[in-house]
Amino acid sequence: MDALVFNAFLRNISAEPLPVIDRTIDVKEYVAIDLSSRNSALEGIDVSSSKAWETYIESYLNKRNATVAIGGYLEQRAIYNRSTYFKKDRPDEERNIHLGVDLWCEAGTKVLAVLDGEIHSFHNNKNFGDYGPTIILKHKIDDNTFFSLYGHLNLDSIEEISIGQKVQQGEVIGFLGDSSINGDYAPHLHFQLIRDLQKKFGDYPGVSSKKDLNFYIKNCPNPQLLLKII
After folding, report:
1. What is the pLDDT of residues 100-121, one digit of tens each?
2. The pTM is what?
3. In the chain, fewer beta carbons within 10 Å around the N or the C end?
4. Which of 76, 33, 80, 73 lies closest to 57, judged by CA?
5. 202 backbone dihedrals φ, ψ, rounded to 5°
6. d(CA 150, CA 147)
7. CB under 8 Å to 55, separation ≥6 — which residues?
8. Which run of H or E residues covers position 60?
């Protein structure tokens, strides 16, 4: 199935927004956020400091009377410059283009399965700037198999689960971690859709280089096709 047809399939799964965090948070409490390199408001932020990011996010939400800031798909971000995990020798190979959607909110927020499925894998990805505790779910609808990734969780989220465990849409599968465990970020959920996991286990690239972007756009469609938030 080509990318355009698969995107249409995702869009048609639900006409209503599908929550991936605490369903008691109304969609009216969400606000869009731009964390790309184009946002001049970020020029004074110390990208090496998770506390500075947390202060910025909290201020952003408070000024807008919002609970969750959401955005990020295909954003080119400067924040990854702080970690050698993302840097390469050639500029076109540097990984700085975000492949998922981020939902910035409080540590401890419930994380929900976006659809019925099963636990494919989980892992604590400990690189600086990485996901920290991560869960990947496998979904099969009609003849289509695909995956959803939930990154930056707390350790409890991956301690009493098992591969193949069935989950239902809207079921609590974990909780957001704080900066001490989530890769050193302000608390948020990295949510990503993946067509082919390429034999990855408990992990999958969440950031692309310019060189590889065409592949990842096809393999990691926009999560908003399902979420339909904002």
Report:
1. 999 999 999 999 999 999 999 9
2. 0.93
3. N
4. 33
5. 70, 15
6. 10
7. none
8. helix 50-63
